[in-house]
Hints:
Elements: H1 2-27, E1 32-48, E2 51-66, H2 95-123, E3 125-137, H3 142-145, E4 153-157, E5 160-161, H4 165-174, E6 180-185, E7 192-196, E8 211-219, H5 226-254, H6 264-274, H7 279-297, H8 305-318, H9 320-355
Amino acid sequence: MNLLLFLAVISVxxxxxxxxxFLMAKYFGVGVxxxxxxxxxxxFGRKIKGTIYSINLLPIGGFxxxxxxEADNLQxxxxxxLGLSSxxxxxxxxxxxxxxxxxxxxxGNLLLAWLIFCxxxxxxxxxxxxxxxxxLVAEGSPAQLAxxxxxxxxxxxAGTSVEDSQTFSKVIREKAGEDVRLSVQSPxxxxxxxxxxxRKTPPAGQGPTGVKVSHxxxxxxxxxxxxxxxxxxxxxxxxxxxxxxxxxxVKVFTKREAPQVTGIVGLYNLTxxxxxxxxxxxLQFVAIISLNLxxxxxxxxxxxxxxxxxxxxVEMVFGKVRAxxxxxxxxxxxxxxxxxxxxxxxFQDLRRMFFSS
Length: 357
């Protein structure tokens, strides 16, 4: 089940990325030779208006093949367009149009994250509370008799500050059968002190106090305001990711710490860990991964969309012939770098899995 869920997540993320390239290419009249779901070999394909829409054997992501995307051989040394080109080739489009087609992929991932945030703010956006929150109170339980209600915050138990549900459960179990004082706060009210006696042998499905607690709460907005709050959340999340990336780079150069990054193996494990936490938290996880892909693909590394944008800039300065001459070798180097990075990150994932304490 985890594998199927993982493949579904990867496929959705890549699909939105490639869909961005596809739609922008179509908008600017660039020929799309194939828009495929999964990795070849091809299982099924149908040609519609010059584009093959295919389903491929390996259900991991997808791809879009644009006419004239292999620009290296489309011009001779004099800058003349060769016979391999055509009027609907990517190579003969203006630099701004090519840049927008490259950017459309990463903005596909940004759009996916925004859409998920819109859904979550309508249904309930998962937030971490600084204190443990009461979710449910069992009928006739010590908690109900002490007037604890869903939504209350539990600030402390028997003088111990409560910052997570594990601390709450541990102290309550230790104090079972004893008179325990709790500091509780209802929304928009001052904290209050209450007393209750946790049960040593609670009914099945109930804890000693009869409450279900969590440090997660759900922020819900009116559906028509969700796009606004989703936009704010998008900006905040991008800022946090950039801040985390900056801190990681600083630690690498100042403290010689290995960067803590997660690859495909780590992502697979995270998918399995997050899925049982509920649909809303899982959707938030997918949105954050999509945002990370958005930012990663913008990096000016050859073989990434950011690298393609970089060489459009090089073309503006040095001309098309030189840019094309340099882009091929640079893409090979960039691809080799990404493969090396993939291997190193995968090794780090495996080491965390099998050798971390």
